[in-house]
Specification:
The structure is a single chain. This protein has about 100 residues and is mainly alpha-helical. About 65% of the residues lie in helices and about 0% in strands. It has helices spanning about 1-5, 10-25, 30-45, 50-60, 70-75, 85-90.
Length: about 100
């Protein structure tokens, strides 16, 4: 539902869902990062690129199952709105 709200531009619903998801999973090292990934995607779709990039930077700094990688950033079309951003280019190139 988070992605649907983001695609429809429903910022309040996205904010509420992100807060609830992250609060519910913040101490869970297994699923917690997935809530952050979902939030990064939603913020990207909403056009909130700074928040999306901040979450991506955090995600790339931690190890977890099926983690975000620079290669996934380069390949996944959900990140297309960020492609021209210098911070995203640095992350996608694998440079901290």
């Amino acid at each position: 539902m988070l992605g649907v709200h983001a695609l429809l531009g429903r910022r309040e619903e996205v904010e509420r869902a992100v807060a609830a998801n992250m609060a519910a999973q913040e101490k869970d090292r297994w699923t917690g990062p997935f809530a952050e990934e979902d939030a990064a995607r939603a913020f990207c779709l909403l056009g909130d690129h700074e928040r999306s990039l901040a979450l991506l930077e955090q995600l790339l700094a931690k190890a977890y199952a099926d983690c975000v990688t620079p290669a996934l950033l380069r390949l996944d079309p959900v990140w297309d709105p960020l492609r021209e951003h210098p911070r995203f280019q640095k992350l996608a190139a694998g440079k901290p």
